[in-house]
Specification:
145 residues; alpha/beta; D-tyrosyl-trna(Tyr) Deacylase, Chain: A; 6-stranded mixed sheet; two-stranded antiparallel ribbon; 8 strands
């Protein structure tokens, strides 16, 4: 699985003019299930992200995790993270998991974050969504498992 995570002051996702997910301080997580990914990949990535020390402590050092801060996560499926841009000007997305499996794995990822004690809001898989965020830092990290 691949994820692009952004430390945020706030973030929201809407579809059809309706806000369907919203958080305060925490992480905006764009998530993509890749062909061959399993539930174990989703669980490992969720554990990694929940424990990643990218939040400031009292001294301004990035020593705290999402769990340490009690922050929330906004999880939005983003199959375009599987883009292959090596063959020209039109990206290919064949490395992404099929939609039904991708949806199950993205939901499992969110459930694993919840299991780690993180408050999670989600987008709607496969929907056209509008995402708004205030990147705190900015702090943006690409990671995968």
């Amino acid at each position: 699985m691949r994820a692009l995570i952004q430390r945020v002051s706030e973030a929201s996702v809407a579809t059809g003019g309706e806000t369907i997910g919203q958080i305060g301080p925490g992480l905006m997580i764009l998530i993509c299930a890749m062909r061959g990914d399993t539930g174990a990949n989703a669980a490992r990535l969720a554990t990694k992200i929940a424990a990643m020390r990218i939040f400031r402590d009292a001294d301004g050092k990035t020593n705290l995790s999402l769990i340490d801060t009690g922050g929330a996560a906004l999880v939005v499926s983003q199959f375009t993270l599987a883009a292959d841009t090596s063959g020209g000007n039109r990206p290919g997305f064949s490395a992404a998991a099929p939609a039904d499996k991708g949806e199950r794995l993205c939901d499992h990822f969110a459930d694993c974050l919840r299991g780690a004690g993180v408050t999670v809001a989600q987008g709607r898989f496969g929907a056209e969504m509008q995402v708004a965020l205030i990147n705190d830092g900015p702090m943006t990290i690409w990671t995968e498992c």
